[in-house]
Amino acid sequence: MQAGSASSPPSRTVSASLGQRLLETAIRGWLGFALRTTRWRFEATPQARALLLQERGDGRQPGLLVAFWHEALALSPALWWWTEPRNPSMRLHVLISRNNDGRLIARIVTPWRIPPIHGSSDKKGKNKGGAAALRQIRQVLAQGHTVAVMPDGPKGPRRVIQPGILALAEKSGIPILPVGVQCTCLRASSWDRMILPLPFGRGRIVCGEPVHVKPGEREAAGQTLTLRLTTAQDEAGQPADTYPDTLASMPAQSVAEGPARIPSEPNRAAPARPPILWSILTSLLAPGLVVMLRVRVRRGKEISSRTRERLGFAAMRRPDGPLIWIHAASVGETLSVIPVIRIIMERPSAPAILVTTGTVTAAAILTRELPEAMQAGRIRHSFVPLDVPRWIRRFLHEWRPDGLVLTESELWPNMIGACNAAGLPVMLVNGRLSRSALTGWRKLPRMAGNMMSALSWIAARSPEDAARFRMLGASNVFCDGDLKTAAPPLAADATALDAARKAIGERPVWIAASTHPGEEKQILDAAKILRKAYPDLLTIIAPRHPERGAAIAEEVKAAFPSQDHTPRRSQGEWSDATAPVWIVDTLGELGILFRLSRIVFMGNSLIAPDIPIAGGGHNPLEPARLGCAILTGPAIDNFEEAFAALGDAVSIVHSAQELANRVKTLLDDPIQAEELGRMGERVATRDRNLPTRLADLICRTCRTP
Fold it and tell me: Any idea which residues carry the catalytic annotation?
C-alpha cells in the first residue's frame, strides 16, 4: 500500500506534465499557423512607426511601452513579426500575470523570442508581483528594450486601465504606444472576449499616437490612453467596406503603411429623415433669433446691412455654372480650409465657390487671404443662414449649390437635412468631435444618427475623432490627417514686420496670443514677475477678439501704474522703448507676432477661479509652423490631438507663477527655445499634400470639373 501510494504521485505528475506539454504545443502550433496565414495590413502614424523602428535620429535606442487591450493578447505576436525584420535590434518582453494562465501563455510565447516578465498590479493588499515586475521592466527599458503590457489585465474590468502602466510611464519618461489588432476570428466567452484567430483570414494592425505621461497628469493620461487604445482596437476591427481606403485595391499580401487615406471613389449618403422636433423648435424660436441678430449688430458682431443674409437672402447674384458651397464658422476653420479652396480654384474649369462664415472676423480673413479671387467674383462670401428650416430652404433656392462642404464641428441638423432632401452631397472636412460634444450628441441618438447618415463622407482630423463619429452612427469615415498641419505659415506684411522689429529693438520679447477675458490678469502677473529678471522685457498681448483692446489697456494700467500709456496696434501705435506691454488688437497680424519671438503662450487655456472662460485652447500649429516654443494652460480640449502630436514641444502651465518660470527658462536658454521650436515645426508641416487630396475628392463628390 505504501509503495503503491508512494509511486502514484510521480506517475500522475509525469502524465500531467506530458499533457501540459502537448497542450502548449497544440496551442502554439495553432496560434502560429493562424497568425502566419492571415493576410495582415499594418497602419501606423508617423510617430508610432518611428518608435517601433527606433528612427529617432539621435543615435540612442530608447525603450518603449506597447499597450494592447487584453482581448488582443493572442494576436500580439503579429506586430513583432512585422517589426523584427525592419528593426532587428528590437528586443521584446511581455508583462504577464504569474497565475497558472499567465504561466501557460509565457511558455507558449517564449520559443518565439518573447521572454515574459511575471507580475500584475497589486490589489486589496495581495502581492501579485507588481512591484518586482515594475523594477524588472524599468531595467529592460533602460537597456532600450520594448515591453508589451495589457493594461486591463489580468482579470479586468474589460478596457479599464490599471494604474501600473501609467506610474511606470510617468517615472521612466517612456511613451506608451497604443496598438489595436483584429483579424478573422472567434470570440471566447471569457471576461475580455478574447480574440481567437482563424487561419487564412484577413487582419489589421493599427498603431495610434503615443501617449506621454507627464508628472502629476496620470488621470488625464489614463483617459487619453483609454481613448486611443479603444480607437485603435475599433479601427482595426472595421471591415474594409466601411473603412474606405486607397490601399484597398492592393494585393492582399502587401503591407499598408500609414493612416487610412482618402477613398478613391466618393460615397453617396443614404436618404435621411429631417429632424422634425429640431425643425419645429427652431421655427418657433425664429422671432427671438431676429432679435438676437439686432443685439449682435449693436455689439459689433454682425454687419447691419448684411443681417438679411442670416435669414437666407442672397445679397448678390449666383454665378453661372457649377457652385460649391463651403461653410467655415470662424477664423480657425476659415484658415484651415483656405488651402483647399486655393487648390480647387487652380483646377482647369474650376467651379465657383460660395464661402459662408458665422463671424465678421472670419469674413475679413477670407477677404485678406483671397483678395484677387474675391474681386473677380470666383469666390463669393455670404454670412451663413441660421438653422431655421425656411431660412435654409430660401438660401438653397437662391444659391442652388452643387454640394456643401462643412468644416470641423459645424453640424447643423436642418442645414444637413435640407441639403439631403434636395439631393445635394454634404461632406465634412477636418472633422472634429470632442469628448464633450460626443456626450451631448449621444443624448440625442436619433437626431445624431439621422444627421450622420446624411453625410456623404467625413474626413476626420484624427483617429480619435473618426472613432467618435462612428459612435454616432457615421460609416463613411476616414482619417487622412489634420488640415491645420497642412496649412502654410501665417503670412506677414514685410513693411509692418520691419517696423515692429525696429520699434522693439534688442528688447527680450514674449507673446500671449488669442487671449480671452480673465487670462490677461494672469499674463500681466507673469509679466511683473519676469521684469524682475528682465527689466526691459516686452510682453505682447494679442486678444482673440480685437474689440477688447481698450479694456485690456485698463488692466495694464492697473498692473503697471507707473506706465502712463499702453500702445495699441489698432490706434496705429508701435511699442516704444519703455512700454512693458504692447496690445496688438487687430486682425490678421499673428504672422508678424510669431516672427518677433520664439516664445508664445496660446490663450483660452488658463483655468482659475476668477477666470470666466470655458477653455478649449487655440490652434498651436500656427506658432509651431513658424518655429515657436509653445506654452499653454491645461484647458486644451478643442485641440488635444494637435497638442498631443506636438508632444514635448509644448509646455503646460497652471498659474501665473508657472507661466513666468517657464518663460524665464526659455529666455535664459535661447538654444532650448530654438530646439523646441524646430521640434514643433517638424510636426506642424509634415503633410502638405492633404489639401490637394481633399480638393480632388470634393470635386468628384460634387461632380464638378
Answer: 333
